[in-house]
Design brief:
Number of domains: 1
Radius of gyration: 20 Å
Largest sheet: 6 strands, antiparallel
CATH architecture: Roll
Strand content: 25-35%
Distance between the termini: 62 Å
CATH class: Alpha Beta
Helix content: 10-25%
CATH topology: Nuclear Transport Factor 2, Chain: A
Strand order of the largest sheet: 1-2-3-4-5-6
Structural class: alpha+beta
Length: about 140
Amino acid sequence: MPRPAVLALCLLAVAACATARPLSAPNKVAPASNCAKPNPLGITGGWEAAKRVPRDVYTAITHAVVESGNSTWVPCDDPTPTLVAACSQVVAGTNYQVVADLTCNDIASSVGVEAEVYVPLAGLNCEPKVTQLTILSVDGKPVL
């Protein structure tokens, strides 16, 4: 194949990759309960159901709830997480979509959240980052 044709194919491939769009809207937290649905295109690398979520993800969510100032929840030092649903996606690290309740048993206070958290690769020594947060309930009462 002549060099101009190879160059044209390479440029076409780069242009196609640059204009490709994700299947879902960016920066929108998808309900974690939807992640178990099989990918209709059979493509790997999408969201998959997660049975466990690392403790540092819950810690990041707790800090984000406190820092948001959008909640009347009274946090404790070490809330007990109860996982409702979760998905994970392997990227350069791992993304988690989490629906969970964080409960402070000693003061009978809880908060229900839906969050998306990015966990960098282990060798980078970076903390997980909450990229989206929705407070669903405080002490069992829905947040409107």
